[in-house]
Design the sequence.
């Protein structure tokens, strides 16, 4: 899996396009085989399409296609040519893939008696598809355009706007269909987001560690010679007492972190230690156990 993710990240534009199309194929198949027949709405224009189909009988693929065209025009007006171009490919490929997979989905007979199991499997596949799309550097347009427009218009971050729009659509679907659809949607979003985040960032198996201590030389020697990994000295200015100090920065594997912290606190019980999850490292001196 790790080599697969690196392949997506590093390869040329043609390879990225292939991965993007494959990702769109996966989410399109899940959408047409599970979400539309089961009336599962997880937000976005595709979710609105399912609600609109229930209320009017209008075809979901046609609704998404028309909506994407309208949103591209609106995006060009409010966001400009450059930002609109980023969404152009996804806005074209996603509806096209929905049209291609719709007849395929109609011929697939899913012999899974448990709806819960079916939705869990669908969540995993949908998460993989979404992760591949984002990892390749693309999106499927639609709600992404709406979110960016609202973010630009109201001067709010995308992370603030996106949940509001998504939650509004999901709650409305519960009114149109049934409250249990909200529970299904939350479960699918939770599982698929976990999978998507893994595809994007992998699993954090290491930590970035910052250390400020009166015994920096001793700690640095421990890092370099006992752990056999690199340590970087950073000049810092401590605001409370306005003192200039040296801060050490290094990468430590999760399996070694507790022992690492314990040994530092033995050397200096008053050492300041800050640790955060680390997902990717390139270059530098590497400890043998680190998986990168």
Sequence:
């Amino acid at each position: 899996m790790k080599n697969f993710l690196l392949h997506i990240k590093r390869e040329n534009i043609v390879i990225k396009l292939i991965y993007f199309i494959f990702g769109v194929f996966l989410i399109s198949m899940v959408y047409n085989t599970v979400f539309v027949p089961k009336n599962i709405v997880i937000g976005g224009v595709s979710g609105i399409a399912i609600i609109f189909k229930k209320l009017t009988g209008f075809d979901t693929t046609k609704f998404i296609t028309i909506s994407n065209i309208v949103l591209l025009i609106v995006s060009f007006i409010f966001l400009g040519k450059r930002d609109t171009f980023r969404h152009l490919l996804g806005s074209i490929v996603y509806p096209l893939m929905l049209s291609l997979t719709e007849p395929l989905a109609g011929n697939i007979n899913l012999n899974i008696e448990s709806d819960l199991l079916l939705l869990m499997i669908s969540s995993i596949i949908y998460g993989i598809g979404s992760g591949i799309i984002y990892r390749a550097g693309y999106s499927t347009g639609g709600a992404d355009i709406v979110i960016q427009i609202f973010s630009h218009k109201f001067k709010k971050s995308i992370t603030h706007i996106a949940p509001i729009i998504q939650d509004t659509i999901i709650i409305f679907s519960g009114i149109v269909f049934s409250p249990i659809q909200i529970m299904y949607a939350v479960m699918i979003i939770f599982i698929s987001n976990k999978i998507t985040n893994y595809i994007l960032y992998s699993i954090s198996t290491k930590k970035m560690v910052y250390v400020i201590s009166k015994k920096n030389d001793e700690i640095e020697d421990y890092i370099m010679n006992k752990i056999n990994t690199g340590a970087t000295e950073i000049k810092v200015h401590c605001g409370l007492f306005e003192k200039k100090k040296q801060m050490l920065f290094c990468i430590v594997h999760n399996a070694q972190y507790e022992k690492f912290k314990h040994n530092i606190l033995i050397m200096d019980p008053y050492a300041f230690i800050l640790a955060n999850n680390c997902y990717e490292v390139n270059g530098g001196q590497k400890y043998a156990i680190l998986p990168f």
Summary: DSSP finds eleven helices and four strands in the chain. The mean pLDDT is 84. The two ends are 13 Å apart (CA to CA). Residues 5 and 206 are 18 Å apart (CA to CA).
